[in-house]
Amino acid sequence: MQTIFLNSHSISDPLLPCHNYSKMAQPGRIDIDHPRYDQSTFIGRAKHFLITTNPLNVLATEAELDHAKSIVEKYRKKEDIPGLTEDELWKAKQLYDSAFHPDTHEKMILIGRMSAQVPMNMTITGCMMTFYKTTPAVVFWQWFNQTFNAIVNYTNRSGDHPIPVKHLALSYALATTGAVGTALTINNMVKKFPPLIGRFVPFTAVAAANCINIPCMRSRELFNGIPIFDQNGNRLGESTMAAKSAITQVVVSRILMATPGMMIPPFIMNHLDKKSFMKRMPWLNAPIQVLLVGFFLVFATPLCCALFPQKSSLAVSHLEPSIREKIQALPDAPERVYFNKGL
Predict the structure, then answer these.
(1) Is residue 245 within 8 Å of 267, Cβ to Cβ?
(2) Of 140, 203, 242, 266, which sits with the fewest C-beta atoms within 10 Å of its C-beta?
(3) Alpha helices, DSSP H only, in 264-339?
(4) What is the mean pLDDT of the chain?
(5) Quick one: CA dihedral 38, 40, 43, 49, positive or negative?
(6) What is the 3 state secondary structure string of 198-232?
(7) pLDDT one-digit tens code per residue, 184-220
């Protein structure tokens, strides 16, 4: 394995668009402020998220996370790290990316990390798809799911400004109320349809709820904007149009992330319910659904996170007039701005 030599070089900003991430920024030094794989391609982004959303990352101890952070921070400061190899550097960086927020650099809540998506979502979704026939069950599991989603959406927000508790509480109330109301409405509408149709109620409710929950939990971004940067990483201001673009991308990717695990198992379970072993052991319904959902989420989570670049961009001409005019007045005004879309 190659040993990393710590000669000096200027670390680029993490928002700088980069196309060949495997190359060293200067001879003997690696640019770790970009992912290891080319983020301009879907394959490169998929490789990156397969690593950072790996459920095994949630098993990392606090000591291991702090050690990974120490390596990343020392390397960025060009401090000497004797014997550090390239693979060890990337392993530390990828573990760091899985647990620390890209804007605030704070350690994220465990269940809010994308690496916790598979174990958490497979359990919650499996139960939603098993217990969907009674109103109390629908209310409880939709509330539980949207509470979890609210934590995820807050944890993976874009920007580095703290959100007031009052604003957070109002957003949570709107998100969970909207989600539960949607689920109950749809559940009542499909009572006269065949049983198979009823199995799709949870997915429909989740898809509709994502359109409510994510904008609610990130509503501060819609009102105040998110940080935007030029291609050299210089902060240009904050944009609400960039926030709208970021949140739209996240809503689309979250709905598609849930699609395989909530659309395919109903057909499988509808077939299995007719089997004699399921009639003898109806308690198998929940664990089978949880495992089926988990199987699909293992692949859907990283692949749907990779649909859009984490560091998205927007043409300056598409920004709101106030920030657009400010940018266009700059010397060598950029044509595009870059921002963290969140996850």
Answers:
(1) no
(2) 140
(3) 265-272, 276-280, 285-305, 321-328
(4) 80
(5) positive
(6) HCCHHHHHHHHHHHHHHHHHCHHHHHHCEEEECCC
(7) 887 777 777 776 776 777 777 777 777 877 887 788 8
User: How far separated are the first and last CA of the chain, in Å rounded?
Assistant: 33
The Cα–Cα gap between 122 and 102 comes to: 26
pLDDT value, residue 13: 43
Coil, helix or strand for 313? strand
Q: How far apart are CA 176 and CA 146, in angstroms?
A: 6
* Full strand arrangement of the beta sheet holding 226-229: 235-239, 226-229, 336-340, 311-315
Asked if residue 342 lies in contact with residue 77, where contact means CB atoms within 8 angstroms, the answer is no
Structural contact between residues 228 and 315, judged by C-beta atoms closer than 8 angstroms: no
CA angle 250, 253, 255 (to 5 degrees): 105
Question: What's the CA gap between 250 and 211, in Å, rounded?
Answer: 10
Most trustworthy range by pLDDT among 121-130, 150-159, 184-193, 294-303: 294-303
Cβ 162 vs Cβ 148: under 8 Å: no
- How confident is the model over 283-288, as a mean pLDDT? 83
> Whose CA is closest to 89, among 6, 16, 19?
6
Amino acid at 132: Y
> 171 near 216, Cβ under 8 Å?
yes
Tokens representing 325 are 């005019």
Q: Give 34's DSSP letter.
A: S
Which residues 6+ apart lie within 8 Å of 43 measured at CB? 37
Question: Scanning the structure block, which residue is given the tokens 């459920």?
Answer: 55
Q: Is 10 within 8 Å of 224 (Cβ atoms)? A: no
d(CA 306, CA 32): 19
pTM, whole model, 2 decimals? 0.73
**What is the rounded average pLDDT of the residues 269-279?**
81
